[in-house]
Amino acid sequence: MASHVRTTLVQRPDCRIERCSCGVYHVSIGAVTLRLGAAQVASVFEALGHALAPTVAADEDGDPRVH
To answer: Is 2 within 8 Å of 22 (Cβ atoms)?
Structure first.
């Protein structure tokens, strides 16, 4: 039986990302942990970038966000 060793890549107050020795990423947000492959992590990262791009651009120009 192979042992799995996790290495913490990022730890913030609201989230933690670990990589397991088997190649799976563990993304924890609050009490929820997602086990994702590298392709899934990349897809989620890309999707978050698209979702957040308009809010980041609005924050940079100094104008308040429109609700």
So the answer is: yes
Dump pLDDT digits (tens) for 28-51: 999 999 999 999 999 999 999 888
Tell me, what amino acid is at 10? V
CB within 8 Å of 18: residues ≥ 6 apart: 6, 7, 8, 9, 25, 26, 28
Strands, DSSP E only, in 3-61?
6-11, 15-20, 25-29, 32-36
pTM: 0.73
CA distances to 14, 20, 47 from 59, in Å: 21, 35, 19
Lowest mean pLDDT among 20-24, 34-38, 50-54: 50-54
Greatest Cα-to-Cα distance within the chain, rounded to the nearest angstrom? 57
